[in-house]
Amino acid sequence: MPAFDLPLDALRRHRPELDEPADFDAFWAATLHAAEHPEPLIRARPADNGLRLVESWDVTFRGFAGDPVHAWYSRPAGAPQLLPGVVEFAGYGRGRGLPHERLTWANAGYAHLLMDNRGQGDQYGNGGATPDPHAQAPGGPGPIVRGLLDPYDHHYRRLITDAVCAVAALRALPGVDRDRVAAAGNSQGGGVALAVAGLVPDLAAALVTAPLLCGIRRALDLTDAGPYGEIAAYLAVHRGAESAAYRTLSYVEGASFARRAQAPAHFGVGLRDTVCPPSGAFAAYHRYGELTGQDPEREIHAYPFNGHEGGDAVHVRRQLAWLRGILESAAV
What pTM does this model have? Predict the structure, then answer.
């Protein structure tokens, strides 16, 4: 697939206007306040991952509406000291899978929490374990269109709230340096990590790759691939629902979360990505931190001949080096 979005020189200047609701901050403040709990963890049980150099725990924490959300907690075996942490968010339709699947962050010396996606896990990977008991509002079968006609019913209100609660859960686990916790994700996970950066003011860092939910209106005009195609298919049947859908999606727009973020951020994007068009990532990158009165450290890496896979392992290597520098300087 040849490049289909803006050319790189235009992306480097791409800072579109936002259709941001006036009550965006009030909406999220009320949502997160309702999810606050003095004990974020429900339980953490040792899990047999079949490995010798990494230890894992099966974690359950309180998410949206106090619902139990599952996660895998992993760390280098026998590490005696407090470790910086990484909360990772999985891609669209994927669950947490099995505890031995995602080992990069633990092997790099971090305390790693991989959050399950509520109501997902059936499209690829090795499954999930967290139902979504609130998914009864009108909408299509895919997560992105569940509750699409009302921001209070939308699936991503619940998933993003879970993600904020996951940061609190990791900080409550033993052996974690709560002052050095980063959020990371790719695709849907990248969009969720960006939302967490905008909602958790003391986050240490954000690693955002090929983010979903960024530049949503433009993405709907550009592509029918992936989750955006599910929105288009829903609106093709429910003619006249566009205004309600666009209003709901404005409350989960990644560029709006980016405006409120303070943590250093590392972005990655493939310029031939038809699933999450690169203009969305650049829109969030250029607006990152603009409402904070600060200029957070940030960088973006573009891969001109790659699609949704972006820089793949090359980009992960860049992430590892960057995050090490960020968290080591935070420890001084």
Answer: 0.97
